[in-house]
Design brief:
Distance between the termini: 32 Å
Helix content: 25-40%
Number of domains: 1
CATH architecture: 3-Layer(aba) Sandwich
Largest sheet: 9 strands, mixed
Number of helices: 11
Radius of gyration: 18 Å
Mean pLDDT: 93
Pfam families: PfkB
InterPro entries: Carboh/pur_kinase_PfkB_CS, PfkB_dom, Ribo/fructo_kinase, Ribokinase, Ribokinase-like
Structural class: alpha/beta
Order of helices and strands: EEEHEHEEEHHEHEEHHEEEHHHH
Main location: cytoplasm
CATH topology: UDP-N-acetylmuramoyl-L-alanine:D-glutamate ligase
Strand content: 15-25%
Catalytic activity: D-ribose + ATP = D-ribose 5-phosphate + ADP + H(+)
Enzyme class: transferase
């Protein structure tokens, strides 16, 4: 760790979530009456940045919002959380990114998103944050912003020996051309299956693991997570909680993982902590409101134990 607190830079998305709750998945052509609606701040970059901040890290977010009402709400929230907003740019040509998560009774969701201003993040804007990246312990990336900016940020981090963690979501055409020379690759099981051959998570992880990766970590919801590195495969069970909304569970997991790795914790200890962060995020409706702080995670871990899944992960 380079300072007294873990220092993390997130180059990522900010997306306003229009969240619907529904009693079941609609069939093609079916008009379904929803059960509730909420408007929440979200996006993988924003969620992961907020998660890291609430877990005690000093966080800088690099991204784009529109010069609109949604953009103003994001800036207000970032300042309220004590985040460095110097590198969150207001875009005059595109509006703030939007998404429509639909949450079903089991807490699972389906999401349609339109990135809008997120895709206009430029290489030069990443360069403007080079000093922040250079002094960071870890850089977090996803695929919800301009891929050229993400890849360039990875190269900047490597130049300064800053760890890089990539959440390869959403998987899209062309992402296979990304420079995969990151330190930690953290897909969920659906993404891992799309990116690698095989029938099981351990096969996907093995297929994704190449030098100079330190580890592949595959998240599997309530079943926990799988780690693959030079020493082999390990499985870490998750926590059984009453799912209300899983929208930000993966982002909370990645925030927990990043904060622990930034403090020089081993990946195994980091994954155990991250599983607790992800589980807690399932217990509250809405992305940003569900992301836990450090005291909540510590209390949860003191009172709950991981439960091995009957399914092989």
């Amino acid at each position: 760790m380079k300072g007294s607190n873990p220092k993390i830079v997130v180059v990522g998305s900010l997306v306003m979530d229009f969240v619907f709750r529904a009693g079941h998945r609609p069939k093609p052509g079916e008009t379904l009456r929803g059960e509730s609606f909420g408007l929440f701040l979200g996006g993988k970059g924003f969620n992961q940045a907020i998660g890291c901040k609430r877990l005690g890290a000093d966080v800088t977010l690099v991204g784009h919002v529109g010069a609109d009402l949604f953009g103003r709400r994001f800036m207000e929230k970032l300042r309220q959380e004590g985040m460095n907003t110097k590198f969150v740019m207001k875009d005059r040509q595109e509006g703030t990114g939007v998404a429509c998560p639909v949450v079903f009774p089991d807490g699972q969701n389906s999401i349609i998103g339109v990135p809008r201003a997120n895709m206009r993040l430029s290489v030069s804007e990443v360069d403007a944050a080079e000093d922040e990246i250079a002094s960071a312990d870890i850089l977090l990336l996803q695929f919800e912003v301009n891929p050229e900016a993400s890849e360039h940020a990875s190269l900047v981090a490597q130049r300064h020996s800053t760890l890089v963690m990539l959440d390869p979501a959403p998987v899209h055409i062309g992402c296979e051309a990304f420079d995969w020379s990151v330190d930690y690759l953290v897909p969920n099981e659906v993404e891992a299956n799309m990116l690698a051959e095989g029938d099981r998570p351990d096969e996907w992880a093995r297929g994704l693991f190449t030098e100079p990766l330190k580890a592949v970590v595959i998240t599997m919801g309530a079943a926990g997570a799988l780690v693959f590195d030079k020493t082999g495969t390990r499985e870490y069970p998750g926590y059984q909680v009453g799912n209300k909304d899983t929208t930000a569970a993966g982002d909370a997991f990645r925030a927990g993982l990043a904060v622990m790795l930034a403090q020089d914790k081993c990946v195994d200890e980091a994954v155990g902590f991250a599983n607790a962060c992800g589980a807690l995020a399932c217990t509250v409706f809405g992305a940003e409101p569900s992301i836990p702080d450090l005291s909540a995670v510590r209390a949860f871990m003191a009172n709950h134990k991981p439960v091995p899944s009957e399914e092989h992960i």
